[in-house]
Design a protein that fits this description.
Blueprint lengths: L1 E4 L3 H20 L6 H24 L6 H4 L3 H12 L11 H25 L5 H31 L4 H7 L1 E4 L12 H17 L1
Helix pairs in contact: 1-2, 2-5, 2-8, 4-5, 5-6
Bound molecules: protoporphyrin IX containing FE.
Protoporphyrin IX containing FE (HEM) binds next to helix 1, helix 5, helix 6 and helix 7.
Length: 201
């Protein structure tokens, strides 16, 4: 095994924008004074989630859903293996992490879809409560995600957060991705415009 490029730059930038947008939206959620910042962070989250969903279909090898959404049995076997000290290394996301990622994307979309009508004063109090419930579910998955990243880093003796910054992880040379993924630029711009348009409504 050697250090190879695994995460393309749109996946990495998308990840950190998503993480920061979520944290900002979460801490400003209860404040009237920071309402606009909250809404902008939510809109950014929505744009980046839409981007990531499309990128999961057309992005580079390890970013594609087909490469990391495995059967529930594979996820269970991976977790059981961890408990028994059998640390099966995955060059991309591990099978359990894949489900957490899917949950984060779906909940990110649901957060934005319930938050926007609340901001527009559409729907009653129940919608506000639903938005809060979805956000809390997302926070729970974020905490599980962080615990998974920590356990995975320790189990595989590999700094996974650093890999999400540099893009490099341990793997076989034939698993490396190549190319600057330049076609992501128009897609990213389209998603940013989508966010800006949505927020201007
Ligand atoms: C300081 C906080 C965070 C750290 C250190 C972190 C770290 C990581 C790492 C290391 C991975 C790759 C896991 C792997 O190797 O399989 C990852 C993936 C991911 N994380 Fe985080 N994460 C953080 C916060 C968040 C937050 C707040 C969210 C969502 C709101 C999030 C959403 C995701 C998603 C969607 C992926 C999949 C990346 C992709 O394939 O596009 N992360 N994170």
């Amino acid at each position: 095994m050697q250090r190879i490029l695994v995460w393309d730059w749109p996946t990495r930038i998308g990840h950190w924008v998503m993480a920061i947008a979520f944290l900002i939206a979460y801490v400003t959620g209860e404040s009237e004074e920071w309402r606009l910042v909250h809404v902008w962070a939510g809109g950014t989250l929505a744009g980046v989630v839409v981007f990531r969903l499309i990128w999961g279909l057309i992005g580079s090898r390890h970013a594609r859903f087909f490469s990391f959404i495995r059967s529930p049995r594979a996820a269970r076997d991976y977790l059981l293996g961890l408990l028994h000290g059998n640390t099966e290394h995955h060059t991309g996301h591990n099978p359990a992490g894949g489900y957490a990622i899917l949950a984060l994307l779906v909940l990110g979309l649901a957060t934005a879809a319930t938050g926007w009508p609340v901001y527009q004063d559409i729907g009653g109090e129940w919608l506000g409560e639903l938005h809060e419930g979805v956000v809390n579910a997302m926070l729970a998955v974020v905490l599980i995600h962080l615990a998974g990243v920590l356990v995975g880093s320790l189990a595989h003796r590999e700094n996974l957060p650093r890999a999400m910054v540099t893009g490099y992880k341990l793997g076989r040379s034939e698993e490396a991705i190549s190319g600057p993924a330049i076609w992501a630029v128009p897609l990213l711009l389209a998603c940013a415009l989508f966010s800006a348009w949505w927020l201007s409504l």
